[in-house]
Amino acid sequence: MTYSAHLNSFARDHLPGPDAMPDFRLKEAGLAYPDRLNVVSELLDHWVEQGRGEAPCILSAQGRWTYGELAAQVNRIANVLTAMLGMKSGDRVLLRSANTPMLVAAYLAIMKAGGIVVATMPMLRAKELSFPIKKAKIHLALCDHALVDELEAAKALSPDLQTIVTWGHQGENSLESLIAEASPDFQAVDTSRDDVCLIGFTSGTTGEPKGTMHYHRDLLAICDCYGAQVLKAQATDIFIGSPPLAFTFGLGGLVLFPLRTGAALVMLDKAPPDELMAAIARFKATVCFTAPTAYRAMLGKLSDHDISSLRICVSAGEHLPLATFEAWHKATGMRLMDGIGATEMLHIFIGAPHDKIRAGSTGLVVPGYEAKVVDGDGQEVPRGTIGLLAVRGPTGCRYLDDPRQSLYVRNGWNMTGDSFIQDEDGYFWYQARSDDMIISSGYNIAGPEVEASLLSHPDVAECGVVGSPDDERGMVVKAYIVLKPGISRDGSRSKALQDHVKADIAPYKYPRAIEFVDNLPRTETGKLQRFVLRQRAQGKTIGDDLLPEVEPVSLLPKGWPRPHGYSNGMMAKGRLIMTGGVVGWDAQGQFPQGLVEQTRLALQNIVDILAAGGAQPRHLMRLTWYVTDIEDYLSQLRALGQAYRDVIGKHYPAMALVQVVRLVETKAVVEIEATAVVSE
């Protein structure tokens, strides 16, 4: 690592240790960046110096900025940050905004001034915003005025955040007023290529969000690998898309790639399918980045919009179903460029160039990266065999002070958590997220494969497939389906869809359970939240039919500390009493050593919570155990059984066992959820 320009060393101090880092392979990727590197000099100032300052850069509903105008705006904001707001190099600055030209300018200004950007999704609430503020020790935030309320509420929860500056209004202290007199000249801070310039937080769907740290060199690496050698855009292109810039898929596709190429980019503060298509027509966009769901939604609206200017369509963020690929190709003549990336890797690392696309395949490893399919021990499996995806290259995982680094990086390889098959020609075929594999009667069934089959039926608009607990088979395939308008929901419809899947793929993969729904849970970026469907399939969601009888109340035993993640006790006043996420800690928040003693204490905590809700162990109807080490659990069944009998007695409700990688409370090795029904 080269000498850092950061006066605030927080980021470098909290990087993973050298032994925990992935194997970064810049030389093997053919990448050579100077020791002193500020990415904004390369992405923006370079073009002005080359005489392209008058070239169009950012297009929006409010007008357009040239490369020169953007550079001047970036410099003014950088001067305000350093001279008026006290930002030092290495400070983290939070950004909160929809996709707007000002967001792009602020993003680049922070990095040019040696700061570290922490961009957040516009839909996050105060509690969600407070997490990155605390984790990254953020003192300063720049925010669109329309979104400031939740950030102000987060400030009350986060004493680190001291200053919020807003734009989009005419207030005395608005960002516009501050930059009005600022100089349009600013010398980029002489940062190291290995200085952190971005912390991207994951969505947190598998626990606390993780802060992924990326260097100045990383932002260029994805441009020079995927951007230059797979996407192959040109300076005459106009980029457009829907993903927020807080999502690294959006940052790369809508800002970094066009700036590295000298192309123009369109900023849309709202980009649902109708507005995205209208903007494609208005701005004559040529390169589109969005999720498979959006492409599928656009299919029915093609006659209403002229999107003939498009020549490249990139799909990522979630698996691209074959049915969507084929339907888009048939309707438009364009083949979607599928790809898989990760916040940890910054952007796409598997995706075929346009002339090498194979329908249904995610693609080939991006030049500069290596990828392989391995077993649980990290050994490469034979071609054509399902296994876990491992990847390494010029970018990789660096979690901000997080023990989960050792789970993602193993022996220098990044373990993405995806199951793939690699064929003899080197193409990678997505199967599922590793935790989306459904094991039913000994068969491994990939939920996305069943989804793809269902989506090929003309009645299906959207669907999500997960495993549902079953006493006989362990799990059965369950499909949550949104039907197209005018299609009736009845038993014959379910059977027709089941028969369709049986005829399309191996019959044992068909959904034995089907539930018709009005919509599916999705993230702000359009990604299907299968974990929500899994919770619903496991009966963890209180149905509307119970709500009139039950008033949910959050409850903690007296004197207990506030939990870091799930509530340690949740009760429902009425007949139904539920506890969620009960771990084995005492009133001081301490954990005993060992699975048996933690289990004993967790069970006692359940008894205490039940008592507070007016229930006893004999009222238990179901227990769900989450353990981090299944072998430890199985080897100590006798001792665990004795602990159970000591605390609960001879009451044996229905039980389920789930192995997880980790729990929200990092010192916990077991978590138990309980449901009791008081009938008297």
Describe this structure in words.
- The chain is an alpha/beta fold and 680 residues long.
- A 7-stranded mixed beta sheet has the order 2-1-10-9-11-12-13, with helices on both faces. Strands 16, 17, 18, 19 and 20 form a 5-stranded antiparallel beta sheet that branches.
- The chain is globular.
How would you sum up this structure in a few lines?
The protein is α/β, with parallel strands linked by helices. The chain contains 19 helices and 31 strands.
Features of the shown structure:
5-stranded antiparallel beta sheet, alpha/beta, 60s Ribosomal Protein L30, Chain: A, single chain, 31 strands, 7-stranded mixed beta sheet, 29% helix, 680 residues, GMP Synthetase, Chain A, domain 3
What summary fits the major beta sheet?
A: 7 strands, mixed
Helical content band: 25-40%
How many DSSP helices?
Answer: 19
Low-confidence stretches: 541-556, 563-573
- What is the overall shape? globular
CATH-derived topology of the domain at 546-677: 60s Ribosomal Protein L30, Chain: A
**How much is the radius of gyration in Å?**
26 Å
CATH architecture of the domain at 546-677: 2-Layer Sandwich
Cα(first) to Cα(last) distance is 68 Å
Write down the CATH class of the domain at 546-677. Alpha Beta
Q: Any idea what the CATH superfamily of the domain at 546-677 is called?
A: RutC-like
Task: Bin the strand percentage.
Answer: 15-25%
Number of DSSP-assigned strands: 31
The main sheet orders its strands as 2-1-10-9-11-12-13
Structural classification: alpha/beta
> What's the rounded overall pLDDT mean?
89
